[in-house]
Fold this sequence. Notes:
By secondary structure, this protein is mainly alpha-helical.
Amino acid sequence: MWIKKSSDDLAIGLLARRAARAAWVFCFAYLLFVAAMPCGVFNIMPSARVVAALLAAAVLWGWYCQEQDRQARAKIMVCEQCGTKFTQPVNSCACGGNPVALSQMKWIADPPPPATPSPAIQPVASEEPASAPTAQNPLRV
């Protein structure tokens, strides 16, 4: 079942996206710095520079793919009333509800149906008193 995210959920999502972007930028900048560092500063082997340049390209490609996926998900809309998904932006749903961006909604699994009450289990009456020890359990009191 789709429900609208609270303002706290939206703030946490925004913070997570900003932290992820900062991590991408930091990784790219660090690898680019290592690949393009002047030779006189630190003694870095040329093969390490090539590896750093390739890793910087991989980080840049990963960031690009993540942004493409984010832009594709930004186009998806969900109706508040019936939960119908739309892949293109629309103004209204057939049920009369308002479509909202998927980034502002979250999925909550339907609660399980209530369990049917089981009949009460009746204790079996024993012939011997509860305080008497038995052969199976001599410590029974």
